[in-house]
Amino acid sequence: MHVLGRHFGSDEGAITDGANDGSGGDRIPTVRLGSFLARDGSAGAAVGVDADGPHAGVVFGKRGTGKSYTLGVLAEGLGAARGVSPVVVDPMGVFGGLESAGGRVVEPRIRPTAIPPEAWPDLLGLDSAGGPGSLVWRVVAGAVDAAVGGSERSSDSPSLAAIRERVATADAPADDRRAAANHLRLAESWGVFDAGAPPVERLAADGAPTVLDLAGAPEAAAAAVVRAVARGLYDARIRGALDRLPWLLVDEAHAFFGGVADPALRTLLTRGRAPGVSLVCATQRPGALPSVAVSQSDLLVAHRLTAERDLDRLAEAEATYLAGDLASRLPAGTGEALVVDDATETAHTVRIRERRTPHGGGSPCASGTEAAASAAAKSEDP
Hints:
The chain folds into two domains: 2-109 and 199-368, 3-Layer(aba) Sandwich (Rossmann fold); 112-189, no CATH class. It is built from ten helices and 13 strands. It has helices at residues 67-80, 120-123, 131-148, 160-168, 174-189, 219-239, 262-271, 291-295, 308-315, 370-380, and strands spanning 2-4, 13-16, 28-37, 43-50, 56-60, 84-90, 104-106, 210-213, 245-250, 278-283, 299-302, 336-341, 346-352. Helix 3 (131-148) packs across helix 4 (160-168) and helix 3 (131-148) packs across helix 5.
């Protein structure tokens, strides 16, 4: 097997695809991705992804080409590998099938302290230099200090209700207090903040795939969760509170850069290797990702792309060791991908293997609806 992301021998891995436990004795964990795709369309040798060390990766592809499917393949294999733990950000509700591989789907809850005081105005859509925004910043900072107080537990967190009470009694104009309280009440309605929420590292404690169900969550709420989880996994590894190497797999990643979640994701891209935190960003809009997402990635999986802006972002991954431009080498078939591996300085066309668990990312067909069947039956009546 050729192993992407590994600098040495490619056949030393304990191969995992979600169908076995991947124990493999002392062999190095490897996630089976698929197989080489020959020019005549036949399948070649097996291709895997190194799961032994931390990686930064991106998965590109226009809608319907297999981007989310590929992310699910990685999650399956990682869930069966030793010493790692996948956490999947699922904004579209398509990864629930991982439950059949021993995974769990959770509606995430985070502590208010998971968002630093200076980020709260942006999270609530307030100007940090304006009256309500600066009031929220000041009150959250004070509430955090008061909650920790003399306690030795830095995990203590105030509730949003407690923060609103502080706003109501703050020394500020009534209009500012009213606006700040209303925005905090809105954040409370999102249902993601809980002062008693378990620490983030528990999401990755046992190695089973954890799917963060964000389908239907407001954009700001989803961004808050992604920031809290990304930063929480990083901090847990720094503190030594998490033994496994976590992999954060983010679908529709373009939605989380440029906002509240951006600093935490950039931290994983630029500094995640040292503590052992991996990040894989999947998107149908590569052009909406920052350049750092491509420049810091050592693994790139590209399904079909056609938009000029997206092809320009792909071109940023072109290295001196690659002959020709990447865009001309993109395969056209669903489930086929061009893989650029920085570790071995190579690019290959691969066919992604079939999922072992149900995939929820397919598109419905009008011909398969009850309405269509009923209409067809009526048309056959004499």
